[in-house]
Write a structure and sequence with these properties.
Blueprint: H1 4-15, H2 36-43, H3 47-54, H4 63-72, H5 77-90, H6 92-98, H7 109-117, E1 123-126, E2 132-135, H8 137-142, H9 156-162, H10 164-167, H11 173-190, H12 195-207, H13 209-215, E3 225-232, E4 236-246, E5 254-259, H14 265-276
Antiparallel strand pairs: 1-2, 1-5, 3-4, 4-5
Helix pairs in contact: 1-5, 2-3, 2-4, 4-5, 9-11, 12-13
């Protein structure tokens, strides 16, 4: 029976060409990417082993073999991490340990105080599945008034795909949306049996063809840093850098903070938005 590990390996094989893997081209190839036997040679394993991995017939794969596969496929560190997570989930004992329903996430009072003290930068506290657990005033002013949303709709990827106002906020929506899908796929590797994640993926797959297509590519990415361009109804165009910081002592919680280059047009727009934000009356968070 195919597993996430097998599907991910097939997707990775399809994305890398023989030339990229250092294999001389031998004319026309009927399918894109590496053949199983080519991957096996590069990783130092048998072709039969690759077949059994992709068909879900290997109970457990050693970290050393998975690292060899990652090198052969030119995977980034976060992609290799996902490969290892998929292999751990394929093992029945590890799967039982990892597939229990995650506990409900709570925001500590100290974290909320930290958020509220960040008055000049937009900040969101994200949990599993990109749930928005908490935010500051400027974060709500930049993205949306999360306090007016029901708790089940305070999810950044749901809003990015299915809320027209948030969708229109991003100047390069397709790039942002693809990254969101890759972030969510990475989260799925940590909790492969999370029922809330399954419901979210199911709803997005049913309602948005782009999400459905991008989810099927098995692209993964860890959230670290980058830049996003916004077209804001009040502040106009903003080009903001973002960083994603782990919250120590709080499992699966990260702080997403946006900043602007000093003395830039975006910095001026962000300062204007900060002055406008206190006039808003957000609903109590909870």
């Amino acid at each position: 029976m195919p597993t996430e590990l097998g599907e991910y390996l097939r997707a990775c094989r399809a994305r890398i060409s023989a030339e990229q893997a250092g294999i001389p081209s031998s004319g026309h190839r009927r399918v894109p990417g590496l053949r199983r036997e080519e991957l096996a040679t590069l990783a130092g394993v048998s072709s039969d082993y690759i077949v059994r991995l992709e068909q879900g017939r290997v109970k457990s794969a050693s970290p050393a073999i998975l690292s060899a596969l990652a090198r052969a496929l030119n995977l980034r560190p976060d992609e290799e991490e996902y490969l290892q997570q998929c292999a751990a989930g394929a093992d029945s004992a590890a799967s039982r340990a990892r597939s229990s329903t995650p506990r409900r996430q709570r925001v500590s009072a100290a974290t909320q105080v930290l958020l509220d003290s960040l008055t000049s930068v937009p900040a969101l506290l994200l949990g599993r599945r990109m749930d928005v657990l908490a935010w500051n005033s400027l974060g709500a002013a930049l993205i949306t008034d999360f306090g007016k949303l029901p708790p089940e709709r305070r999810n950044l990827i749901w809003l990015t795909f299915l809320d027209p106002d948030v969708r229109g906020l991003y100047a390069r929506w397709d790039t942002v949306a693809r990254e969101c899908v890759a972030y969510l796929r990475m989260d799925a590797g940590r909790y492969p049996e999370d029922p809330e994640l399954a419901r979210l993926v199911g709803e997005l797959s049913m309602k948005d063809a782009d999400f459905r297509r991008w989810w099927s590519t098995h692209q993964v990415r860890a959230q670290h840093y980058g830049r996003k361009d916004f077209v804001h109804a009040t502040a106009g165009e903003l080009s903001l850098d973002f960083q994603v910081l782990d919250v120590r002592g709080a499992a699966d919680q990260t702080l997403l903070v946006y900043t602007a280059e000093p003395d830039s047009r975006s910095a001026q727009a962000l300062a204007f938005l900060a002055g406008w934000a206190p006039a808003q009356q957000p609903a109590p968070q909870g």
